[in-house]
Structures are given as C-alpha cells and as structure tokens.
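RECORD CONTENTS
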Amino acid sequence: IEGAIGGVVFAVLGFLVFGFVMKSMGNDVNFLNLVILSLVCAIAAQLGDLSASAMKRSYSVKDFGNIIPGHGGIVDRVDSLMFVAPVVYHFISIFPVIR
C-alpha cells in the first residue's frame, strides 16, 4: 500500500514539475487537467503492473524473460507503460493539458 501511495504522490509531483517547466517555456498549461491526468496515469500504471503479475502467477513464472539479468524480461519493464500510453493519448485528445 505504501508503494501505491508513493507512486501516486510522485506521479503528481513529477507531472507538476513538467507543467511548471512547460509554463516557463511560454506554454499555456492547464494544471487541473495535468493533475487529473497524473492521478489517472498512476492508477493505470499500477493496474498494468498488477495485471502482468496476475498473468505471471497464472503461468507460474517469475519473469517474462531473461534478457535483462535480475530485472525480468522486457515486458516486466514496460508492463505499466502498456496501460499508461493509451490512457495518456485518449485523455489529452479530449482534455488538452498544454495549449
């Protein structure tokens, strides 16, 4: 639970830093949409990780591969991104974050 909470907190902080950097570069940033997107991304990332873990448990494997020794396979590295990427695409298509 602590890791999940930390993931959400640091996602929001990371997105806010990104927003302030973009604003300092002269862009119009919608911080409300940015915070909402960060919360949705944090949740989607955790769901991606949990779903990959559920698949591994159902097949009784520890890692999806051994291409990166000690870190599992490539899928273990990008399992969260597989859920986050479509979420970001659709969210920013509907609710612009930077104009």
In short: DSSP finds three helices and no strands in the chain. Helices lie at 2-24, 31-58, 74-94. The longest helix spans residues 31-58.
